[in-house]
């Protein structure tokens, strides 16, 4: 769709914040319009990047689960179950999110297991998990920050 | 809503008719709808008017809390060194206004906006504001709650069990409310369980949401009301100090708690006014815990909106902005970011 969805949402947001908010009568109404505008900026950004963010993260998480399986101990079944999750059949956000949820559930089980192992290999792998968790927050961060 | 409110007040004030004016929903209040209004009626000595605030349960919100508990904690502190508005009526019947509610006196000519202390005239009195904030928190921490309404609604934990009671409570909320797995918060919970804090120095009233934004102040830096007691409970007073330091309330985004005080100064003030020690190991535990608790609140709001139980836009805004930010706060707290 052109103009791009993200650009259109930005335009709607700017209209709400510049043309509508000031004309709104009550403080609560103004707050609601302001929040709607801010949300639209974020949704515009997520529309553009959401599928890519999830595809990248699902690939990285799947790799971690695969590499960490030998360290999973009693959590091996949970990790195997997560790994058995088929890749999303399409690129709908809901499909990619469902895959992400299954993989990250397995990652929690693997992380807990790795933390309980006293070895250099486990400690190194623990650092790999933390590095991915840090990266996951960067993927979710919005560029636009208002207020 | 004016008509229904007039009918309700007429049944509770010894008068035939009550007139409600200036009914306005107050911005903020993500957990309960907050409205202000004026009421006028003919009293025995002539016309009377009073300013009120109404807190009403929404269909769904950031928090699923008991209004009776909040009402009891407000009532507990009425007339004490901890300034609170006077409670007037508690109404559990949801059919009257579309949700259970309570009504309290409105404290006039005060400010509560979180951004206000960053601009004149409040900018010049930030130090006074911070001093008063922690002096009142000291009064809450040292308050003798035995025999008060708070005791009848809140179970007191043991000094060495206070941390576990709160962690169990908020972990259960996260278990029930998360829409997606939360690997960072789960790691934080594992760390909290593996590294319990020392016993509480005393079992105190914990406000539960003590921060800039939840008190009413004037341009001279004086504080005239502590509000939003919906998460109040009995527990370790360090929880309130840790909560006040949380990054989520660093409104000026300059690392200063509440945007009004340097962190070391806040800790010194709390120690001075509470007479207790803010052990840094214990404080670190409670700060990590407060991130977990925050996440429990944000996740509850996200689910409420996702499931269509509310269309309050503040809930997705909080979810979009704060769930990831809180994860990053945890990472910073434990030295991973």
What does this structure look like?
The complex is a heterodimer of chains A (147) and B (337). With 147 residues, chain A is mainly alpha-helical. Helices cover 75% and strands 0% of the residues of chain A. Chain A starts with a helix and ends in a 7-residue tail after the last helix. With 337 residues, chain B is of the alpha+beta class. Helices cover 41% and strands 16% of the residues of chain B. Chain B is built from 10 helices and 9 strands. Chain B has helices at residues 2-12, 67-77, 126-141, 149-153, 162-177, 183-194, 238-245, 263-274, 280-306, 314-333, and strands at residues 18-25, 33-43, 46-56, 87-91, 101-105, 204-206, 215-217, 223-226, 233-235. In chain B, helix 6 (183-194) runs antiparallel to helix 9, helix 7 (238-245) packs across helix 9 (280-306) and helix 9 (280-306) runs antiparallel to helix 10. The mean pLDDT of chain B is 94. Classes of the chains: A mainly alpha (147), B alpha+beta (337). Chains A and B meet through helix 2, helix 4 and helix 5 of A and helix 6 and helix 10 of B.
Features:
heterodimer, A: 147 residues, mainly alpha, B: 337 residues, alpha+beta, Phosphorylase Kinase, domain 1, Aminoglycoside 3'-phosphotransferase, Chain: A, domain 2, 5-stranded antiparallel β-sheet, two-stranded antiparallel sheet, 10 helices, globular
Q: How large is the share of residues in beta strands of chain A?
A: under 5%
**Helix coverage percent of chain B:** 40-55%
| CATH topology heading of the largest domain in chain B | Aminoglycoside 3'-phosphotransferase, Chain: A, domain 2
Low-pLDDT regions of chain B: none
Major beta sheet of chain A, specifics? none
What order do the SSEs of chain A take from the amino end to the carboxyl end, as H and E?
Answer: HHHHH
Could you state the oligomeric state of the chains shown? heterodimer
How confident overall, as mean pLDDT of chain A? 95
Biggest chain contact = A-B, 29 and 25 residues
Main beta-sheet annotation of chain B: 5 strands, antiparallel
Q: Count the domains of chain A.
A: 1
Question: Helices and strands of chain A: which structural class?
Answer: mainly alpha
In the CATH hierarchy, what is the architecture of the largest domain in chain B at level 2? Alpha-Beta Complex
Principal-axes geometry of chain B comes out as globular
Mean pLDDT, all residues of chain B: 94
Q: Please give the CATH class of the largest domain in chain B.
A: Alpha Beta
Total number of strands of chain A? 0
Portion of residues within helices of chain A:
over 70%
Number of DSSP helical runs of chain B? 10
